[in-house]
Specification:
The protein is of the alpha/beta class. The chain is about 30% helix and about 25% strand.
Length: about 260
């Protein structure tokens, strides 16, 4: 998963966009559909060309302190246009990362203040980025928690506390709370905690690059959780060309809510 930033649309246009766009799209008919995510939101022209592809869902970074790409295309106009083309969006926010995250992922969670950071520095910030784009109440936002070493229970507990703040903060503002992470770390940890309402996510986006688009049967977490609210990122970065336009994408199978 790669990281991005958000742009802000004009307030007057926001009112029109919120009225025009359905804030939440349920899981696709038949249980799943084809999606992709890229570092920067493609232009509306590129997405129009990509209607020749099998994809109908696109992941887009709406904000976050650990962004990797600018988002010159992302605005309320862009959201309205791509909705009109028939695209469902997977709104993603990439903020503070686990203290034990692998590699150079940027700023990390303060272990002593994880819950408050999840609420104030993630959930509040994410909905403030989403609303001006026309992604209003009811929209799912997926927090991008990159892979980390979940062997030490202390680090897993910090992530759980942070995500509890994320969930509570989004719910307080009327949004659905999702999470993107590696099946082997963040997803495995949250799956084990789904019996506690404090940690109950509305949707999961799990990364397991096994080149198998199946939504179930992952070895790291049970099929019993998030049964109708799953997205599987099954292939990592690669180039695809549709309609004459090439994008470097990750491939996703979408069986959960989108915006």
């Amino acid at each position: 998963m790669r990281r991005g930033t958000a742009a802000v649309g004009a307030a007057l246009f926001l009112v029109l966009v919120v009225a025009a766009c359905n804030p939440v799209k349920p899981p696709p008919d038949g249980g799943s559909g084809n999606g992709f995510d890229a570092c920067a939101a493609p232009s509306t022209g590129t997405l129009s060309d990509w209607l020749q592809s099998p994809y109908r869902f696109v992941g887009v970074y709406i904000g976050g302190s650990n962004r990797a790409c600018s988002q010159p295309n992302l605005s309320a106009d862009w959201v309205n246009a791509v909705h009109g083309q028939g695209w469902g969006l997977i709104p993603t926010y990439v903020g503070l990362q686990a203290p034990c995250a692998f590699g150079d992922v940027g700023p990390r969670i303060d272990s002593s203040n994880a819950n408050n950071q999840g609420y104030l520095l993630a959930a509040d910030a994410a909905q403030n980025d989403a609303a001006p784009l026309g992604l209003g109440s009811g929209t799912p936002i997926y927090f991008d928690m990159e892979a980390y070493d979940n062997g030490p229970s202390g680090c897993s507990n910090v992530v759980l506390s942070f995500m509890a703040g994320w969930i509570r903060g989004l719910h307080d503002n009327g949004y659905a709370a999702g999470m993107y992470s590696s099946s082997a770390s963040g997803v495995a940890d949250l799956a084990q905690a789904q019996g506690d309402p404090t940690y109950q996510l509305d949707a999961i986006w799990f990364a397991n690059w096994n080149n198998d688009p199946s939504l179930f049967g992952d070895p790291y977490f049970s099929d019993s959780v998030w049964q109708n609210a799953r997205i599987h990122q099954f292939r990592g970065g690669h180039d695809e060309n549709w309609g004459g336009d090439t994008i470097n994408i990750d491939s996703d199978q979408v069986g959960g809510p989108t915006g």
